[in-house]
């Protein structure tokens, strides 16, 4: 019915209090109860005068301590204690107490007891604390006795010690009586105050110290009888203790996001957030570290832990933990849950579970193993070793000697590096940050991101995607079908083998396709595009004014794509004093967009009627200065299958032979029909046919 350790504490019949003051049994367990109580100053009629002698009255301080013990019972279970002046269901007294320990039928003056209690019965229950216990505050022997005797009177609990019988203290009769429900008993390793106050054996690791709360099994057994009080500490609660304090406690917590904080501790702490586990916190005792002095009750979830300045060991649980090691060379273990872990200062060992974790080693030479899941690993300052495991992991690297290890098939992983970095085996992506300039890939299909510096980015093998962003960057695609985006700046890109896509974007770029069927885009700036071997596509158009690109297809049947026209051209109307923007072939009314010399219109078929803020005027063709750039094609060769791609109809363009570039051979000039607006110059080439060599697209 219950765990064996619960049944060992419970009376064989499961006796407890019902809400109406009657005694229940194992058939009606689990409901809450309200129990009246009163203090007595004299012996009761049904109490043996040999056992209970010389009654006295509790002092105010002692009564308050007993009320705090009752309140502690209320914290963990659905029990309410109601004070009455007389004749409470539970009656609490203060006297000299004795017990027939040797079982000879006589009680000697030497057979004193720390206290006595009766179990629940129809006439009520009594708890009498021996007058030798003057201090009843938490952590004293007297308080321990109060909690123990209340266990008998409220929970019907057994004295669980069986077969230990130190000094022949307990009779065979006592040991039979101490067997629990279903004849359960505790094992020798459980029969102590580490687990339950119902044992006569002290805490095995902390001799001389008394628990100041109900312990692990006590709480579980009370909740089996009365149900758990989930309202206690149901908000976000932080648990902490004095500097190197000695204590024995169990935490019962009803909910919220909770934290165990030992940041003030200077000696090593061992924290375990799992329910039913033990932690070790506090000072040294007789040269031995405090051990297992804090338990977390069953059913409790503590989410967070903060270590101290010692070399701590911290274990999480299945919740979403936040764990901070702080100073010291710490060991941190998390399990299930999306955890956040900070190692702090020191050389830390961090092992995470199989969910999506964020791990920051911070300062020191850290060893981080993230387990499965999509994890973020950041070693922080120092020489760190990071192992991501399965899942799509991200690594932060800030030292040249940092080690990142991934295994084959363990997800799609990337590195964010603030030092020059080459991707190791089984890593796919790289982003370089700060002032770093070099980022190199490996034999996988890498994606590499540069920064605002003048980067050196190499894809190595694989089908890579390389981004430069700002700065004058140099790219090497190397083996594979690579894609390169130069970004801002004057970039140089080499595709190398196979079929590459090179986009210089803004700036005066140099793009070299080399081997393979490459596509090269100059975009803005005065660019140099060299296709190299293979059937290449070269886009020589730009987005700025007066751009002049140089295109060389190299060997192979190359396609040259000319100009942004007829989508938009730059036109300066001097008698208007403005730039305008339009579309090829537009006629009739054109509206002014700006007078800041930034907006443009096409003006192929003039005169246009232009509306301005001052009215209307007619612009004649002689008034137009066109500001488009053009492409210089150095090696157009019809015999290799080279073509020029244009937008619109062939009739929109004119082809003439002129010596424009100053060499001994004439050049072929391609212009917009009816204008002197050059779109391309085919260097030293006159063998060009608008019918055969143009490829027109709509």
TrEMBL record:
Protein location: Secreted
Cellular component annotations (GO), alphabetically ordered: extracellular space
Listed transmembrane segments: none
UniProt key word Lipoprotein: no
Cofactor(s) the protein needs: Ca(2+)
Annotated keywords: Repeat, Secreted
GO molecular-function term, one example from the UniProt record: zinc ion binding
Gene Ontology biological process terms from the UniProt entry: proteolysis
Entry annotated with the keyword Amino-acid biosynthesis: no
Primary location class: secreted
InterPro entries: Hemolysin-typ_Ca-bd_CS, Hemolysn_Ca-bd, MetalloPept_cat_dom_sf, Peptidase_M10B_C, Peptidase_Metallo, RTX_toxin/Mannuronan_C5-epim, Serralysin-like_metalloprot_C
Domain Peptidase metallopeptidase per the UniProt entry, residue ranges: 23-181
Family, per entry: Belongs to the peptidase M10B family.
Name of the protein in question: M10 family metallopeptidase C-terminal domain-containing protein
Lineage, opening ranks: Bacteria, Bacillati, Cyanobacteriota, Cyanophyceae, Nodosilineales
